[in-house]
């Protein structure tokens, strides 16, 4: 592929996205003073796709009528009042800190919008979904270019924005490869300018893409430039040839509907990090938003597929994403000396632990809630499920030493004395034989008579 200037890069990106099923809209057609929107869709959208109305003002970020329509369509059994409340919640997300507002909205996006309603004289909770994650074609995907946003009397026009169900979830900034000053770093810097000048757009942002037509990388609103990463595969089976343009690979490998929705729901996390000011001694909590790299994403999904196959499940009820508790991790640490140790352990997870956590968090495995780096008595264990009193440990080479084995033996005896079952695996066992790991876990769980009801659900092999 030969690309000559920024305009050609933009046209190429839109063309590739149209092939993936995105409807195309030229941004100025949505401007408040534009002509009525007609014949702006280029592609073959699903039958449920409804054309957006033009905006009432340049400050309107969300395509309100599209989102309102999709909320009705995706939530037919939810009361009209709850659907209206959900729409109001989405439109009114705000925090003085952009990352906090972004985290609040991401929780709504990934877990559904929780609404309290009065029913039969009692207060009950209802969940309103903004996206159908199981069925991508039930959603409306738009690629919109040259979309003008005015905030605080300042005007900006990002190159390309990807909308799902009327919500601007991905911002793509492009630069001209023929201009030696218009580098991919300049595209990153432009995103930082947008965040300062038109922050409302980034309340709803899941991730950003930057490209100079040669290189292409993705990262989040809190990512430093060094943390923006290329997506190096289209199929996930092997890395794309170096002769294939990086932008083409990223669009087809990362922005196809299925992968994009999977990333949004299951592979974005918000981590808290405490930093102490060297001069004042004041401690600040910084939120960092992270998205999985291509190799992490495909490694986790391959491990899930292997486990499902090994367990001979007709589908994946035990491993489907569960949304309860995504942000409710509690370490329950009561001993002050262990708090810092637990934080360090979380930060220094081995790849095996990363993969296992992706497989079991949010009740993905047998609907069990696992906690990571959890305190049991005076010990901190890798993973713990209180429902079945199960401890799962992953060991590196350090555990092969005699002294460490003595320590592990003492630790395991203590854990057993307080009623916990302990399973130990080598890191490479999960990396190379994930099905064996989960079969052993399943076998251990089935030995617990209090869980016999789980087998009746068809979870057992």
Features:
36% helix, six-stranded mixed beta sheet, globular, 20% strand, 461 residues, Endonuclease, Chain A, alpha+beta, 16 strands, disordered C terminus
Kindly describe this structure.
There is one protein chain. The chain has 461 residues and is α+β, with helices and mostly antiparallel strands. It folds into 2 domains: 6-263, no CATH class; 293-455, VSR Endonuclease (Endonuclease, Chain A, 3-Layer(aba) Sandwich). Helices cover 36% and strands 20% of the residues. It has helices spanning 6-19, 64-74, 80-91, 98-111, 184-197, 200-203, 246-254, 257-266, 294-311, 336-347, 351-360, 402-417, 427-432, 434-446, 452-455; strands spanning 23-26, 113-119, 122-128, 141-145, 149-151, 154-156, 160-164, 167-174, 207-211, 216-219, 268-276, 283-291, 371-376, 379-385, 390-395, 421-426. The strands form 5 sheets. It has a 6-stranded mixed sheet, sandwiched between helices. It has a 4-stranded mixed sheet with strand order 13-14-15-16, with helices on both faces. A two-stranded antiparallel ribbon has the order 2-3. Strand 13 (371-376) and strand 14 (379-385) form a beta hairpin. Helix 2 (64-74) runs antiparallel to helix 3 (80-91) and helix 9 (294-311) crosses helix 14 (434-446). The protein is globular, with a radius of gyration of 24 Å. Mean pLDDT is 82; it is low at 42-48, 312-350 and 451-461.
